[in-house]
Amino acid sequence: MKRLQVTLAVMMTFSLLISACQGGISLGKKITVSIVYGSEKQAWLEPLVAEYNAANHKTAEGSTIVVEATPMGSIESVDAIIGGTMQPTVWSPASSVYVPVANAEWRKTHSDDLVADNPKDLVLSPVVIAMWEPMARALGWPDKQLGWADIAGLAVSDEGWAAYGYPEWGVFKFGHTHPGYSNSGIVSIIAEAYAGAGKQRGLTLDDLNDPKVSQFMVAVESSIIHYGVSTGFFADRMFERGPSYLSAAVMYENLVVAQESKRIEGTSQQLPVAAIYPKEGTFWSNHPYAILNAPWVTAEHKAAAQDFEAFLLDKPQQLKAIELGFRPADPSIPLTSPLDPQHGVDPAQPKTVLEIPPAEVISAIEALWKQVKKPVDLVLVVDTSGSMAGSKITAARSSLMQFISLLDDRDRIEIITFNSDLLTLTDLSPVSEKRQDAITRVSGIIESGNTRLYDATLLAYQELQDKADPKHIRSIVILSDGQDTASEKTLNDVLAVIGTGNLEGGNAIKMFTIAFGDDADKDILKQIAEATGGKQYDSTPENINKIYSEIATFF
Asked: What is the mean pLDDT of residues 523-529?
């Protein structure tokens, strides 16, 4: 009897499962569309992924489509794809500018392009120079169309804003991200090269060899306060700290719209911001939806990715993009608020769109930028107290050695270690003269004693004040795994000294602090970093290399 009951129960369960299948309920057969995308569109894409997944879309084979989307820097993500550490179905960078370089790199080990054909655009946003409106008006905007030539002229002017009747604004302070890591960074230097050559199309290697191009780029880059990996970080810092920190920065039009929306709503008290569309030409941040031509992308993956693409390009989703300051990919959809002058933008711009150069020209521009970019005077401060024993000191040594290898020959470094004592391993001097010696010295650091974090911080700051070139980026990177236990100075002493840098705004000495491990005093390190306009990082022995690599993008 008991066996009969079990058999009947199994039959009933099987019958219910068959009914469920006939009713369209999935039994678990699914196909995942993994997307790595430029984080600039996260606010638009993230809720749409959730909406799409909730609707249980299916392929022709009956698989439920599940979209998994990961925001990541455009160049960082394609480097991971080419390096084999990431295998997404779709790559959606901020723009198509880096696609030729990505394809050239991919063809070194494959027979076809990574991005085949011409991917469709998801949303659009012109690359602009965001400038405080009073400053733009001082230069003649909106009656005069501004551009890279105005930036270059201001950058090298000894008078700065005084030449326009505003000495209280000081010197011109400019920002763009690092072109080796960020789409807006590579776009910036390509646009600089075009402007220097006086062209909008057909930029060649011969053009880059013309001294006037490098001279023009030197002029623009001389006003840089620092570089960075994230366009959003620049926007946040500019809009938080105001015109004393940055006069202008390269970013996307939608970020200007977002800031102006906050100001209009009363959640930001900053000055109005104007989007400058360079008269020499600019690029679209067109967010291509590239279904990868890669071995791991099957025919069903491609069909599933195309289904999600159609969903994103449907009118309701495109209208949601407008609400966030993006322009729709479909030109038949009219541009409405907030894409209007009240939000700092001009829907009739850009008038001139630059041509994306071939891969070899883009690579040559990056190489030229490394020759002309603003050098950094950098003090590296490392905790070598007894609590750094074991894996911490091992990781600190290896990561710092890697960091030194990332710096350019024209950069200058000084290295200070601290425990119960403060020790200068090498004085401030060019990396070209001592790269291997500095690496060798770092390889021999050992741990012992107490923690004089505050004294070491003040020593590093004073060293830069006394010895750094004011025309260089000036920065300090501090790594510490614990609380201060032995300093003569206090945190208030530190903040009182480094806070005086506010008089220099964006040109002040920047501090980047690394809280190394669970025992590090993260709050204090954050206070030190943010007082200077820098950034605080949380780190472990496992991810310290990545942290140092990100900090290197600021220089």
From this structure: 96
Q: Is 550 strand, coil or helix? A: helix
Q: How far apart are CA 226 and CA 504, in angstroms?
A: 14
Quote the distance between the C-alpha of residue 212 and its chain's center: 29
Q: Is the dihedral of CA 80, 321, 342, 237 positive or negative?
A: negative
**8-state DSSP, 356:** P
Please tell me the pTM assigned to this model.
0.90
Model confidence pLDDT, tens digit, residues 29-48: 999 999 999 999 999 999 99
Query: CB–CB of 422/455 below 8 Å?
Result: yes
Of 414, 431, 407, 422, the closest CA to residue 378 belongs to 414
Contact 348, 334 (CB under 8 A): no
Going by C-alpha positions, the residue among 317, 331, 319, 320 that lies closest to residue 284 is 331
**Which domains are seen in the chain, by residue range?**
27-123+287-328 (3.40.190.10), 125-285+341-371 (3.40.190.10), 375-552 (3.40.50.410)
**CB neighbour list of residue 80: distance below 8 Å, 6 or more residues apart:** 36, 72, 86
Compute CA 366 distance to the chain's CA centroid, rounded to the nearest angstrom: 16
Helix 211-221 vs helix 359-372: crossing angle, to nearest 10: 60
Please give the angle made by the CA atoms of 498, 502 and 508, to the nearest 5 degrees.
75
Contact 93, 78 (CB under 8 A): yes
Q: Following DSSP, what letter does each residue of 271-321 receive, concatenated?
A: PPEEEE--TT-B-EE--EEEE--STT--HHHHHHHHHHHHHHHSHHHHHHH
Q: Are 110 and 137 in contact (CB under 8 A)?
A: no
Angstrom distance (rounded) from CA 132 to CA 533: 19
CB 65 within 8 A of CB 59: yes
Report the Cα 287 to chain-centroid distance in Å: 16
Could you tell me the CA-to-CA distances from 43 to 124, 169, 240 in Å, in that order? 14, 34, 20
Q: What share of the chain is helix, strand, coil (3-state, %, to 5)?
A: 45, 20, 35
Is 80 exceeded by the pLDDT of residue 394?
yes
User: Closest Cα to residue 121, out of 351, 340, 327?
Assistant: 327
Query: Model confidence over 44-77: pLDDT tens digits?
Result: 999 999 999 999 999 999 999 999 999 998 998 9
